[in-house]
């Protein structure tokens, strides 16, 4: 029995029952693949179900506001995925009359769709022979064949794509692709894989040479930077607060946040007093403030760690651009701020 036969046999006995595996609808498959980028199934499944319920067709998604889409996405992170999802939905609905491109080459032209996603949709929805290569596939192939070429190098990306393309079952590409991804996700895990019961344990080079923990090889990541965020949570006598929209191209684009001051280090109360915050405090001169969390909340992103404090600023009156605190949860916010909002009881302030 060769590699693909063993793999598909394993998949038929061990695959998880997931909603996007019972359909050929390219909208559902595309949606699932976008959600599962950088996200495990356990976390992504509730979001998939929520999106399908709220936006059962691509036209429903296309007609939604970006703010509503971002709000539904809240907590998944990597928000550019949600913005690209919405943009692509509008393109397909309005420019392509709701018809998904039915081949790898044209799928690749869609915003937010790269090689892996185009291959997945092409094979699963349209039965095209297009091999997928994601983190799970890199891990399976590097261990089984004993390949130490870095998976995030130009040479590695090309080598593993070529290898996956040579292995794919041309008669059932959708099944093969889903099988190898499932195998990497549930059997050949990053840590403590189940080698004892692995169907490839008699041929896996990594296992035979005791290299399981060394493969796959990945080049060192970009240096992680540390930033210090101070969010100003305004509350006035009329139970209003203030949110601002992040419009830059950095993290959290188009999400909302409390007014932000960045500092060079984590601030103590006496150090916060020294800041010139007149502009940020919206020209309020009569106010009281307190520190909500003495210990920084540390929010880890791929390339930066955010050490964050929330400062409660009580004022008599905020300008007309303020919003009732009862409406705060309607706005899409980063998970860091969402957790604060859930923990801080505005209504009793």
From TrEMBL:
Cofactor-binding details, from the entry: Binds 1 [4Fe-4S] cluster.
InterPro entries membership: A/G_AdeGlyc_MutY, DNA_glycosylase, HhH-GPD_domain, HhH_base_excis_C, HhH_motif, MIG/MutY, MutY_C, NUDIX_hydrolase-like_dom_sf
Keywords linked to the UniProt accession: 4Fe-4S, DNA damage, DNA repair, Glycosidase, Hydrolase, Iron, Iron-sulfur, Metal-binding
Protein's UniProt keywords contain DNA damage: yes
Cofactors demanded by this protein: [4Fe-4S] cluster
Gene Ontology terms: biological process: base-excision repair; mismatch repair
Single GO MF annotation: purine-specific mismatch base pair DNA N-glycosylase activity
EC number: 3.2.2.31
Pfam families assigned: HHH, HhH-GPD, NUDIX_4
All residue ranges annotated as the HhH-GPD domain in the record: 35-186
Catalytic activity: Hydrolyzes free adenine bases from 7,8-dihydro-8-oxoguanine:adenine mismatched double-stranded DNA, leaving an apurinic site
Functional description taken from the UniProt entry: Adenine glycosylase active on G-A mispairs. MutY also corrects error-prone DNA synthesis past GO lesions which are due to the oxidatively damaged form of guanine: 7,8-dihydro-8-oxoguanine (8-oxo-dGTP).
Family: Belongs to the Nth/MutY family.
UniProt protein name: Adenine DNA glycosylase
Gene name as annotated: mutY
